[in-house]
Design goal:
By secondary structure, this protein is an alpha/beta fold. It is about 30% helix and about 20% strand. It has 2 domains: about 1-175, SPOUT methyltransferase, trefoil knot domain (Alpha/beta knot, 3-Layer(aba) Sandwich); about 180-215.
């Protein structure tokens, strides 16, 4: 799977994509991550990517022209050969991040994992020209009911969550789909202040049915 990120701050992603599971998955060819500086698709010497909003506003707005050119170039340069595991090649999805987009969840991650390429547009400042929303992006996504400085953190969220759905990304694929529940590990008892805090007895019982019930209750 290929992730292509369009941003005006490409260096933000340096540590994120070069550590841990993401780095290993790229080395193994399970995923590819391309970072694209939006300024590459500008035509003036100042590499202008934004301008004042019509009607007035407190901040600048990212222009439609460089974003459209970037998406066109990235889409055309992407070629994926069909394989046994992914027989339908070159399915792409263009995503824009915005607080007014559809809220991202695990079900959406599973849907996006079926594509071969995700082009992720990271907004900044006041936002992006509405023509990007209507005519360039396939969908608009929000990662929560709050406002970020830009779409880069949202892009990282999508990449990590979707990558976990791809076979081979993690060693035990069932952990990609498991529910989150309370967990304990050694030591069996640990003292904090004047309190001895033991591991719940049910987890030490060896009774798999009771353990499963306890985990469901505490998920």
């Amino acid at each position: 799977m290929k992730f292509d990120i369009v941003t005006i701050f490409p260096n933000i992603f340096d540590g994120f994509i070069n550590e841990s599971l993401l780095a290993r998955a790229q080395t193994k060819g399970i995923i590819k991550i391309g970072i694209h500086n939006l300024r590459k698709w500008t035509s003036d010497r100042h590499q202008t990517v934004d301008d004042k909003p019509y009607g007035g506003g407190v901040c600048m707005v990212l222009k439609v022209e460089p974003i459209y050119k970037a998406v066109q170039a990235i889409s055309k340069s992407f070629r994926l050969k069909a394989s046994v595991s992914r027989p339908k090649a070159s399915k792409a999805r263009v995503i824009l991040f915005s607080p007014r987009g559809k809220k991202f969840d695990q079900k959406m991650a599973q849907r996006l994992a079926k594509y071969d390429q995700l082009i992720l547009i990271c907004g900044r400042y006041e936002g992006v020209d509405e023509r990007v929303v209507k005519y360039v992006a396939d969908e608009v996504i929000s990662i929560g009911d709050y406002v970020l400085t830009g779409g880069e953190v949202a892009a990282m969220t999508i990449i990590e969550t979707v990558s976990r759905m791809i076979p081979g990304f993690i060693s035990k694929q069932e952990s990609a789909h498991k529910s989150d529940h309370a967990q304990y590990t050694r030591p069996e008892t640990y003292k904090i202040g004047n309190k001895n805090l033991p591991v719940p007895k049910v987890l030490l019982s060896g009774d798999h049915k009771k353990i499963a019930d306890w985990r469901k209750k505490h998920s």
